[in-house]
């Protein structure tokens, strides 16, 4: 029994370590924004651990010194893109609402005292109390998140295009992947338009549409045919 417990504990720690590494890799390379979830019953300990991880993995750009102690401008660490962090205290249904203000002050105080300044600038000033069990405050959190992301996307879009009013934020990574696939099929047509047959162009467009359907919902040929038959009288 003791050996089984130790083995189970070892497996749990290994999987947890792998999960942390994978998450950090995603945060450094692909992530625009991230929710930091803290268990409200153990938020102080969890917050300190998260701050240590963030400070270690999102260090500022540092100049390296040469043998003479002079700054070497050619050798500088790569600047890592820091996501926009939103701190949330989960399981708030386990704590009385009258304690929320004190907990919020403690979290902000801990962040100001321990989190690196350049990371702190990338953190939301709002701290959310949520409950995944009963859905408390989830809608408010998602509304805030969407507003922030749409605003950020619009600012980036306006730098390249004059009209950035109709910007849609894609909340899921799979949406972005399918959109990239659709764009790649269309770019392939544009690049090779003079060398492609109509059949190949048609197939590429079909593949692009299929990718978009994965985002907005699949539309099958049978559905289109049924719609035509319902709307028009064929054969007259």
TrEMBL record:
Domain of life assignment: Eukaryota
SUPFAM superfamilies registered for this protein in UniProt: P-loop containing nucleoside triphosphate hydrolases (SSF52540), TrmE connector domain (SSF116878)
Pfam families tied to this protein: MnmE_helical
All copies of domain MnmE helical, residue ranges: 121-233
Protein name per UniProt: MnmE helical domain-containing protein
The organism of origin for this protein: Plasmodium falciparum FCH/4
